[in-house]
Automatic annotation (TrEMBL):
<dbReference type="InterPro" id="IPR014044">
    <property type="entry name" value="CAP_dom"/>
</dbReference>
<protein>
    <submittedName>
        <fullName>Allergen V5/TPX-1 family protein</fullName>
    </submittedName>
</protein>
<dbReference type="Pfam" id="PF00188">
    <property type="entry name" value="CAP"/>
</dbReference>
<feature type="domain" description="SCP">
    <location>
        <begin position="106"/>
        <end position="214"/>
    </location>
</feature>
<dbReference type="InterPro" id="IPR035940">
    <property type="entry name" value="CAP_sf"/>
</dbReference>
Amino acid sequence: MHRLFFALLLSVLCYTKISAQEWSDAEIRKANTAVNASYLTNEEKNVILLMNLIRLDGPRFYNTFLEDYINKYNDNVRQYRNYNQLKITRNNTYYTSLYKHLQGIKNLPMFYPDERLTALSRGHAVDLNRNNLDTHESSNGDKFSKRLSRYFPNKAMSENIDFGYSKSLDIVCHLLLDCGVPSLGHRFNILDQKYKLNTVGVSIQPHPSFNYCTVIDFVAQPFYTANSTN
């Protein structure tokens, strides 16, 4: 039964077999907190799965799935004349800083999906698509904290937005590297320990300027509340 479960999961993930085999059946199942969230697509579920694998073992994620992403990305941009500027090299400062940040990441609490939070993420992603925006502010001027506080008052919260990707591995690794973002805010949301963020909403939607946008909202809730939504 465990082998069948793992094989089915690998077929959904569509990542390289070598990297997937570096993770045990039990680890994948622990990280796959969104498996029964019917309101999420498979790619949205896998965004949560991958963020949880990072939190389970940061160095191992760095040497498996992140390496797959970088190799695939570099192969894809090889066709462009400015390949040398586009490629991610092993001395890229964002790549090397990520290595340092992931060294102490081990067995952090998992993220759990929430249907209400996902509805808020989806609403903002649809708004970005409809109005061709690329901001955390809604078209009516509301900041993300105002949107989320209507349903999650007095909670620590944050938001990641990714543009250009529709596949979970690309989305998560792009946010984790956070190239071009000096504050590394997207990275630190995924690796959060300070604010105890544990509840997430995810929505991947089309976008007129970037093809796709992904909104990931994070909220800190009592563990039993987050866990009860699955």
